[in-house]
Design a protein that fits this description.
The protein is α+β, with helices and mostly antiparallel strands and about 190 residues long. The protein is about 45% helix and about 15% strand.
């Protein structure tokens, strides 16, 4: 049992956001992605609604299509005098540097549960994904771009689903950096 605690402590305490500029061009096997998502499915959920829904973008064609959504959005929402080719290309850069991008969505059940509980459950699912990716040596991070509503429309999400962001994944060459916290846990606990 002690070994299990040591392993989980290590994974939790070394988990961090690793961004696409640090990703290397190496495909993540589908079975690894499936295992990451399977572990997401074991997150806690009130009333067993299991609100997490994922759309996986993988492979050059799918990633290019998603990147084009962001690039064209930039073009369509930027006045001609402010348009920058560099910013246009940068709009899709994170996606194109990733081996896989997973849209994180929530299926809401407004008659059964408050929205915050469903979002909390999805966040727990993403944490399970993050810990699993860390154990595989895969870098990842969760981003919530300002265009979530438009992104939901782009993906054709059904009514009752809400996009909560994009989860980027890729093998990486980032050095291991110790986790930092602003204050120790003792400063955040009140024993009643």
């Amino acid at each position: 049992m002690d070994q299990t605690v040591e392993v989980i402590n290590h994974i939790i305490r070394t988990r961090r956001s690793i961004f696409p500029p640090n990703y290397i061009q190496k495909e993540i096997p589908q079975e690894v992605i499936e295992n990451i998502l399977e572990n997401a499915n074991y997150a806690p959920t009130h009333k067993r609604t299991e609100p997490w829904r994922f759309m996986v973008f993988r492979g050059d064609e799918k990633l290019q299509h998603l990147a084009s959504f962001f690039m064209e959005r930039y073009r369509n929402n930027t006045p001609a005098e402010s348009f920058s080719q560099a910013r246009y290309e940068a709009a899709g850069e994170k996606i194109l540097k990733s081996a896989c991008v997973i849209a994180v969505n929530a299926e809401l059940h407004p008659n059964d549960l408050p929205e915050w509980e469903e979002i909390a459950a999805v966040a727990c699912a993403v944490q399970n994904m993050w810990l699993t990716a860390t154990a595989y040596g895969i870098g990842s991070y969760w981003s919530s771009p300002a265009v979530l509503k438009e992104l939901a429309e782009y993906m054709g999400l059904p009514e009752g689903q809400k996009c909560l962001g994009l989860y980027y994944l890729g093998y990486h060459n980032a050095p291991e950096v110790p986790a930092r916290r602003n204050s120790p846990i003792e400063d955040k606990i009140t024993w009643a």
